């Protein structure tokens, strides 16, 4: 089977803090009644496997394709502890998520198994006027101060509170204490780990059990970093052509996130030498490649994996399209693939690029 663009069936997760926003914002058909907090779009974990929705590989899991397609799927990005290197989700926070932290590099190495380091980023798809996130602790806060705030149930007072708006993107390296605030919908890009340690849960009671949800202070405290997230990870720049605008959002050791806007009616060769993932936020189109009889159609709310070994890939936009383009940073040449360099992305013939550095506000 020739490799081709993959779209997976979403895995919906009921959450105490979830809602129904995915129905309107991302055009998803949700299970009835339940508050849905997460839609897992690409997942290769022990208990959650994305299943291909369309095409010759329909019904197969991403884990099976990792084995069958190998580097033709993930290229020189390689695997993360034997798994597909990224986990992609949408989150709908109708009420605030718990204040939490993910395993640090040191803790993940010490514990092993399912405890893998978790670096992630949030792209703000939509936010109510008072929408916000919490990221990291205020200057001068150390472990004793954090423990005192937990004891007094005043954790919010020692966290950095950040009002957010649509189009912003925030990097959350492992060890960063954080929470997604109420009324915010995000796309989440992360390394393949689902270990979360709750530090504080707003004194909330789970209606399903009548009890507060468990906290994980013993596990969390060794993971927490008291340093700010370095600004270098979120330096923005724009690259524009007649048809396309690309904005760099986050660049870290685990992934790169760029926002791509492409005008309606473009038919263009895909300029990738390695695997790329599109998180489609607006618009629709088709993807074509060698070995695929019918085009892969994408639309708002889809997440598309474009394999590294795909041949003669082309995109046709039916509307003005906006997607997040996610890749793995690699010191890479063209890897033997007969395609243009990624620096020529979006510009037929490779000309007409204009790059503008943009300060973050």
Descriptive overview:
The chain is mainly beta. The protein folds into two domains: 6-231, Jelly Rolls; 233-358, Sandwich (Jelly Rolls). The protein has helices spanning 21-25, 62-69, 71-74, 105-111, 143-151, 217-220, and strands at residues 6-7, 11-19, 36-42, 87-93, 99-101, 120-127, 132-137, 159-163, 169-172, 178-180, 184-190, 197-200, 205-206, 211-212, 236-240, 244-251, 256-262, 267-269, 276-282, 284-288, 296-299, 303-306, 314-317, 321-327, 354-358. The strands form six sheets. Strands 1-22-19-24-17-16-15-25 form an eight-stranded antiparallel sheet, with no helix packed on it. A hairpin with a 7-residue loop joins strand 20 and strand 21. The longest helix is centred in the middle third of the chain and has 9 residues, at 143-151. It is globular and about 60 Å long. The N and C termini lie far apart (47 Å).
Strand order of the biggest β-sheet = 1-22-19-24-17-16-15-25
Percent helix among the residues? Answer: 10-25%
* Residue fraction in strands: 35-45%
Radius of gyration (CA) equals 20 Å
What is the second-level CATH architecture of the largest domain?
A: Sandwich
> How many domains?
2
Q: Given the helix and strand composition, which structural class is it?
A: mainly beta
Number of strands: 25
- Low-confidence spans: pLDDT under 50, at least 5 residues? 334-359
Kindly report the average pLDDT value: 91
CATH topology of the largest domain: Jelly Rolls
Shape descriptor: globular
Helical run tally: 6
């Amino acid at each position: 089977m020739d490799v081709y663009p993959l779209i997976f069936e979403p895995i919906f997760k009921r959450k105490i803090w979830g809602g129904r926003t995915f129905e309107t914002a991302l055009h998803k058909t949700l299970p009835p009644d339940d508050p849905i907090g997460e839609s897992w779009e690409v997942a290769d974990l022990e208990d959650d496997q994305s299943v291909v929705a369309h095409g010759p590989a329909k019904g197969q899991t991403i884990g099976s394709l990792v084995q069958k397609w190998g580097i033709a799927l993930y290229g020189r990005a390689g695997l993360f502890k034997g798994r597909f290197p990224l986990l992609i989700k949408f989150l709908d926070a109708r009420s605030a998520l718990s204040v939490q932290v993910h395993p640090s590099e040191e803790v993940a190495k010490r514990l092993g198994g399912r405890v893998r380091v978790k670096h992630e980023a949030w792209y703000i798809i939509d936010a109510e006027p008072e929408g916000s996130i919490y990221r990291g602790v205020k200057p001068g806060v150390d472990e004793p101060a954090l423990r005192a705030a937990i004891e007094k149930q005043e954790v919010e007072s020692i966290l950095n509170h950040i009002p957010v708006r649509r189009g912003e993107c925030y990097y959350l390296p492992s060890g960063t204490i954080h929470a997604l605030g109420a009324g915010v919908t995000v796309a989440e890009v992360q390394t393949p780990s689902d270990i979360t340690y709750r530090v504080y849960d707003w004194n909330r009671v789970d209606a399903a059990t009548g009890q507060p949800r468990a906290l994980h202070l013993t596990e969390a405290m060794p993971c927490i970093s008291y340093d700010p997230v370095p600004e270098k990870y979120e330096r923005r720049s724009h690259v524009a052509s007649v048809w396309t605008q690309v904005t760099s959002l986050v660049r870290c050791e685990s992934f790169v996130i760029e926002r791509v806007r492409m005008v309606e009616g473009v038919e263009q060769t895909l300029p990738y030498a390695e695997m790329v993932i599109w998180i489609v936020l607006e618009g629709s189109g088709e993807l074509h490649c060698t070995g695929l009889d019918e085009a892969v159609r994408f639309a708002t709310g889809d997440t598309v994996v474009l394999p590294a070994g795909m041949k003669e890939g082309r995109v046709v936009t039916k509307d003005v399209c906006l997607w997040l383009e996610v890749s793995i940073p690699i010191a890479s040449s063209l890897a033997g693939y007969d395609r243009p360099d990624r620096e020529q992305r979006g510009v037929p013939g490779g000309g007409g690029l204009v790059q503008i550095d943009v300060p973050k506000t």
